[in-house]
Structures are given as structure tokens and as C-alpha cells.
Specification:
alpha/beta, 6 strands
Length: 229
């Protein structure tokens, strides 16, 4: 398969490589309600991609309470405990097959996530051992301004020594899509959560598929669409 000037595919983690968002949503709602902040699991999906610190800061300010950095750290630590207590997270169906197909095209793969969840970041090495190194993983520990700002994806381009038109992003969340598009990158959305397609389309997704399997099944067509864009 000819890939034109394409050199890399940048993968989000939660909801793309891992079927983990329901655990994140559950953990966020339990912890934030415990601290007196109103958030539904549906809203948690809308915040997907933000760093934990940014999510806590946004929700607390929205409800008229300013909390300091140390308290935000404590709340996020509680969220980490709640997340760990959820059922075990497994790779998203067809995520490994998609990675193999992409690398089989001779393309580099990189991870670009807003997560700072230690359990998942450590699990990457077990579930996807042949694909990522620390150098090809951009996580919440690497930048200050997270999604929807373009910084995470701009950092990936810089670290991978690639241009914005030499990459494809695979995302599932509106904030992640906004981040990728702000960095000027062609973005494919896999709608693996409960949000309507319109939310992802309005965020700027170039193509939308209902699952990672659908992205895998249509990969050759995606490359054709990208080369013609």
C-alpha cells in the first residue's frame, strides 16, 4: 500500500487503544460528587483528553469554588484509587491488529494521551510491547497545556521529526479531535463511547467510524482519503 508522504499515525489511548473510558467516567463521578461537585458520566466523556488537574480545575471553577494545586492533587489521587478499583481494563477490540496493519505499512506509531493514570501507562508495555517506547509516548507528564490545546500533538510531531501533513491522528474524544486539528493533522474519529457522531463532527473530525474494528476494516480507504486531502 502506497502511503504518499504519510510517515506516522498518532494514537490516543483511552477509548482507542484501551476500552477504559467507562472506568474513567465512573471514577470521576464518584470522586467529584464526594467532594461536592456535580458531574455526570456523560459529562466525563466530554472532558476526556484533559489532564486530571485541568478537569478538576474546570469543574470546581464552574461551581464557584477555587481550589489550590495541593487539593487538586489529592482529588486526583482519589480518582486514581477509584479507577484502580474498577474492573480490569482490556485493550480495545482490534487495536493490536490495527497497530500491526499500520506498522506493516512501514509507518511509525506514537501514543498521545492526556492520561497520567500510572496503571494504564505501565500496562502499555505489557499489552502493546512491540509498538511504543517512552520516546514515542506523549503523556500528561510531558506538557503543561493539554487537549484541546494543540500542544500534545505538536510535541508528538516535534519528537517524531515529522510535519503535520505527514501524520494521521486516531481519536475518540471531542477535545482530542480539537487538539489534533489545531495542530493541523488529519484526524480519524472512532466513536467508541456514548457521544453522538455530531459531537465528533463538530469537533472537526475528517472521518468518523463506529469502532476501532471499522477503522481497521477501512484502513486502506482512509489512506486513500488522506492522500487526496
Amino acid at each position: 500500500m502506497k502511503t504518499g508522504n504519510l510517515k506516522a499515525v498518532l494514537f490516543d489511548m483511552d477509548g482507542v487503544l484501551y476500552d477504559s473510558m467507562k472506568n474513567h467516567a465512573s471514577a470521576w463521578t464518584k470522586v467529584m460528587l464526594r467532594h461536592g461537585f456535580q458531574i455526570t458520566e456523560q459529562e466525563a466523556y466530554m472532558h476526556e483528553g484533559r489532564t486530571g488537574d485541568s478537569t478538576i480545575d474546570l469543574i470546581s471553577k464552574r461551581e464557584g469554588k477555587i481550589i489550590g494545586a495541593e487539593e487538586r492533587k489529592r482529588i486526583y489521587a482519589e480518582k486514581t484509587v477509584e479507577f484502580a478499583a474498577c474492573p480490569p481494563v482490556v485493550p480495545m477490540a482490534y487495536s493490536v491488529k490495527l497497530l500491526r496493519k499500520v506498522t506493516g505499512n512501514g509507518l511509525m506509531v506514537m501514543l498521545v494521551t492526556g492520561s497520567g493514570q500510572p496503571s494504564l501507562l505501565e500496562q502499555i508495555n505489557t499489552d502493546f510491547p512491540e509498538f511504543f517506547t517512552r520516546e514515542t509516548m506523549i503523556t500528561a507528564f510531558d506538557y503543561v497545556r493539554g487537549k484541546p490545546n494543540p500542544d500534545p500533538y505538536l510535541m508528538a510531531l516535534e519528537r517524531g521529526k515529522i510535519l503535520h501533513n505527514e501524520a494521521i491522528v486516531i481519536e475518540n474524544a471531542p477535545l482530542g479531535i480539537q487538539s489534533a486539528k489545531a495542530a493541523g493533522i488529519y484526524t480519524v474519529a472512532a466513536n467508541t463511547g456514548p457521544l453522538p457522531d455530531a459531537v465528533l463532527r463538530n469537533a472537526g473530525a475528517d472521518l468518523i467510524f463506529p469502532s476501532i474494528k471499522a477503522v481497521y476494516d477501512h484502513w486502506e480507504k482512509i489512506l486513500e482519503r488522506k492522500s487526496g486531502s
